[in-house]
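ok so heres the complex, three chains, lmk if somethin looks off
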Amino acid sequence: MTQTLATRAPSLQTQGVIKVFGSMRALDDVSVSIAPGSFHALLGENGAGKSTLVKCIMGFFEADAGAVLLDGKRVSFHSPRQAQAQGIGMVYQHFTLVPCLTAAENLVMARADAPRVINWRNETRALEAFMDHMPFRVRLDRQIADLSAGEKQKLEILKLLYLDQRFLILDEPTSVMTPAEADEVLSLLRAMAERGEVTVLMISHKFREVKAFCDSFTVLRRGRVTGSGDARAVSVAEMSRMMIGETQLRSRAPRLAHASAAPRLVLDKVCAEDEAGRKVVNGLSLGVVAGEIVGIAGVSGNGQSALVEVLAGQRPMTGGSLSVDSAPFHPCRADLNRFRVFGLPEEPLRNALVPRMSVAENMAFRSFDKPPLAGRFGLISPARLGAKATDLIRRYNVKTSSADAPIETLSGGNVQRAVLARELSGDVDVLIVANPCFGLDFASVAEIRAQIMDQRNRGAAVLLISEDLDEILELSDRIAVMSEGRLGDAVPSAGADRAEIGRQMGGH
Amino acid sequence: MSLVDFLIVFYAMIGGAIRVSTPFLFVALGECLTEKSGRINLGLEGNLIFGAMVAYAVSYTSGSPWLGVLAAGGAGLALGAAHGWICKLPKVNDIAVGLAFMSLGTGLAFFFGKPYIQPSAPRLSSLPMGGWSGNPQVQQALQVNPLFFVGIGLAVVLWWALRNTRAGLTLRMVGDSAASARAMGLNIDLVRLLATAAGGFLAGVGGAFLSLSYPGSWNEGLSSGQGLMAVALVIFARWNPLRCVLAALLFGAAGALGPSLQAVGLNWGYHFFNAAPYILTLGIMVASARSKSAAQEAPRELAIMK
Amino acid sequence: MSSASSPETTPPGIVTRLQERLPEARLIEPLIIPLGALLASAVIFSVFLLALGKNPVTFFSLIWTGGFSSWFSVQNALQRAAPLILTGLAFAIPARIGLTLLGAEGALVLGGLTAAVVALPLQAAGLPALLILPLMALTAMAVGAVWMGLAGWLKHARGVNETISSLLLTYIAIAIASFLIEGPFRDPGSANKPSTQPLGFDLRVSEMFGTSVHWGLAAGLVLAVLLWLVMTRSSFGFAARIAGGNLRAAQGQGLPVGRLMLACCAIAGGCAGLAGFFEVAAIHGQANASLAAGYGFAGILVAFLARQNPLVVVPVAVLIGALDASGGLVQRRMEMPDATMLVLQAVIFLTLLVSDTFYGRLPFLTYQRGEDRS
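and the predicted structre for the whole thing:
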């Protein structure tokens, strides 16, 4: 029998919150009102400011202007612990449970008043009693490492309730759950909210869940509130419009028409798993024709990074196959050279470069084992390496104090230019690009997109994976949406329906 | 060989195993604590030797071997704390620091220990556990040092504390998921510093056993790498203090078996028995390297297991 | 989030301005910090000496005398440096690909044993020494390469941590060698100290022309230069350095990371095995327990002090050799135990490791990070 907790759900308002990082306004006059006992959804694309807002609420950092009111009283938290002491708790996208401990041990240790010597008999009894009040249970004596991701997420939520936190902030909670678990947890939370036991603020991009379980919502776009209202009344199309913006098309880059041909790069039912054995890429099939850009859109965390890692050889492929020009392709050096496959991975300092090596050396990664750089006996000529680097630095406008400077000292835009110089300076048949312009300045962004377009016009088959929908729409010939490891059908981007794309991003 | 002879050898082996395993046990428990917090200390060999020297010297000057044991622990604590403090500096290579401390501990021990090689210091007295047998050889063999029981008791206490006290659970948290520990506001560097210092203390006590009980003298050939072996031992015991006791006994028995067999004329297995613990540990590491369940027992923050 | 500082607010340091003009100036940081560490260790050790009532000036001048001042002492230092060059290389090469291999001691012992054992049937067959010696060296290197390659293979194929596995393999190697030396390969004439049969006189590696330093030094020098060339100038070395610098980038470039790791481990084992060969053929004349003299572990200090650079290993090995060489002199003149040198080396090692934390943190030494203007 489920007993009810005392009805103490708090209300929360933010009034005119502003948060600036350097030159970027992460939050611009954000005012949100969450009634007690409501299940409120916070919607928005990547980079809209949702994480920043909840971190301000939680006390990770302080807003530069504006106020946060809890139950009508102004509060200012300097650390998450202070927020927790006032009853605000958060479930993050990464787990904060300790894998080697059991659920019971995690819960007890999370308490600020955990006893020095723990009497497990008493604690277990208290925990069982607590569990009886809870709408869903997790076995207390199992190690966290043995729990599924969905069970871990449930336990994270239970931890908040155990710690008597009444304002629950959930950051994409169902992204690791099966649909059944998601429905179970959300409906139970909704019931608790309706009973006035908790107030829930859920960051989500899944319209289905928002429509099914939430009562109110707010939409953020580029740090501003672009809409709010009753989740049950407003349509998905309307929500999507608030999220993504007006359907006016950005000017698309000038492109040459190519005769369509058989696809050059073919991904056939590609699968990949994470450490827990879950499929992060699930039977993904796609073909890219020479001279076209296929853009894969989607909210981050749906398997895009894993897909790029598979194509780059950083993650093993557990199923399916890759082929280029009808021949099998493996991401080994011989094939990369033979098929002229090049890549611009995301976070280049992490994925494509050695930070402490010089700019010149980093630019030689593709060519160090071939003539003209490599001579007899596999010896590299430093003069030729330096000359080539100097030439590339000049041609691609890489601003560096010297070719021998460690590449980690370059600014973000120049780092990416250096990678471009390395990868795109030869003949490119296949190009795989991931989030190329993330965090870069305006000028660099324009340059890089122009380079990608140029390669496409010269006949390369380009696969563009990006979390920036505008970028995808501007550059791609065809667009497909990736969600939960699967790919929707690729449609021509000219005249594509933004709302439909937005809907697909919210879950098939 | 008659049955009586066989039994004498057998009891001699048991006694030998207990004697040889005691320093292993202390160093292993110390390393276990340190590794549970997510840090590896390869320098315990230095703690062991330095502890042995300090114990002998203090026992000689003060006349009390137990004071020597305490002093050895203190010396080990200081070395361990220094190790822990240096390792928390960014960009410092933990493994190399351990090796450096091994040299430092050994060097300091040999440096200050020269005057104590000849003199005879009061030793730790042993408990006669062989009184039930009338045979003087067996009685001699079964003289057990109380430190052995202290070690076992300590292992039990540690095992209990790791599951039932806040301090123990905190230690496991820091060693398994630094991110979660940080989210809870724990000071990870402090926990690891304390664990490394405690580990150093125990290794020092293990060293005291070497010089004050068995072999019972101080000289520069005292240790044969037991400090480094203890690292293998902890991996072999899968970071469980109780299994450390069993593993120490196993390693000790392997070490004692060789001489015992030699004494009765069987020569061939000596080196094999010496090497057996390492071969076993290597085998276990290979078998569990890709196994999910075995990996779960390792503290996930331990650099060598990542 | 962008960082709070910008180039406009903090003026570039002297060194940065220098680095913009002169590319070689980027070597300043990796040179100043280790030199600073050496200086700091000298200061710390001087404090230690003063606390003991000894004169630091006398001490360091004795080191100079014992290690560098006379031809005799220089030769002494070089003689001791010879194995250290090779074992230093044995740590430095895998370190460049990101592996911490501690197995040089074991590979050395097995290499030395192999050389001693291989020599006997070849000698009995009447082959000339000019043929036997290279064969001894090659087999020693091969055995060492296989042994340390084993640790590399375990890492590549099974993901076993190479530090621990190489440590275990060292002990196993010493046990195997002891077993063989005391058993099947034992020289019946070696009663109190089990050894293999002594090599014939013409099978001993001689000293270099008129000096008292054996050819092992020259071999170490040649290998150091060769491996430096390989690591800095060859495609193989370049690929290995990419893998050591950023594994993901190496994978993204399709490089065969596993094979590269294996090769580096084998090279390291070959160096250590060669050191074992020289220990047997030039010093002892036979394989016995003296082989495990700790050169393998001493090589680790050499490699770190040399910042894993094969060329720099040579002068560093000579420095450490000089320290070792002056140990006896210090002991006699200042009445200090010969462990003094061990303490000094440990202090040097520790201050060097602590100095690692200063890389990138001393503003006047490092590059300023660039910022985009938007």
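quick notes: Confidence is low (pLDDT under 50) at residues 1-10 of chain C. thats all i got rn
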